[in-house]
Design brief:
single chain, 14 strands, binds fe (ii) ion
């Protein structure tokens, strides 16, 4: 029997996925500046996305990812991902927090918005009918969020542009505050 070395290694708590089929994308501030009430003037890296993408975009195939979110705020508003529904609302997704502290903002199609606390080891099963956005609430530490989702789920960002999440998440000193839009 032929025994192969693994094509990809992901030391979950220590590092990023590495190996065949892993891509890295860097998101800079200017790409997400419009999300914020009071944007910054500079252009730091806000998050990095590692994706293990192999095989066809067909039903049943999965993607594996890691998002590393920097502790970058916009005049007190916490660093967040764009957030999306799945184009195919029947596709669910797992998020799992590997490092740091944050919030998983969730919003149903009526605009009802709530959140789950993200901390090291937290696991989040996301319904495809619910929009999801990660927020790094730390002033100093990165937030590392892993994900596994179907290749066919797609990302519906337009629905978020039509109706944003119901709350902004800000830091006031040591307190995290939620501002209703
Ligand atoms: Fe998703």
């Amino acid at each position: 029997m032929n025994v192969l070395d693994p094509a990809v290694v992901h030391h979950l708590m220590e590092g990023v996925p590495e190996g065949a089929g892993v891509t890295r994308a860097v998101k800079r501030y200017h790409e997400v500046a419009s999300l914020y009430e009071s944007p910054r003037d500079d252009d730091p890296v806000v998050y990095e996305v590692y994706t293990h993408d192999v095989g066809p975009k067909t039903k049943g195939n999965l993607l594996w990812g890691l998002t590393v979110m920097k502790p970058v705020d916009s005049h007190g508003e916490c660093n967040m991902t764009r957030g999306h529904f799945h184009e195919d609302r029947d596709c669910t997704e797992y998020y799992f927090c590997l490092r740091g502290e944050g919030l998983l903002l969730l919003m149903d199609e009526s605009g009802e918005t709530w959140a789950e606390r993200m901390c090291e080891g937290s696991l989040h099963h996301i319904d495809g009918h619910v929009a999801h956005r990660c927020v790094n609430t730390s002033a100093t530490e990165e937030l590392w969020v892993g994900a596994c989702w179907p290749t066919v789920s797609g990302h519906d960002y337009a629905a978020i542009e039509r109706r944003e999440f119901g709350y902004r998440v800000k830091r006031a000193g040591d307190e995290i505050v939620f501002e209703k839009r």
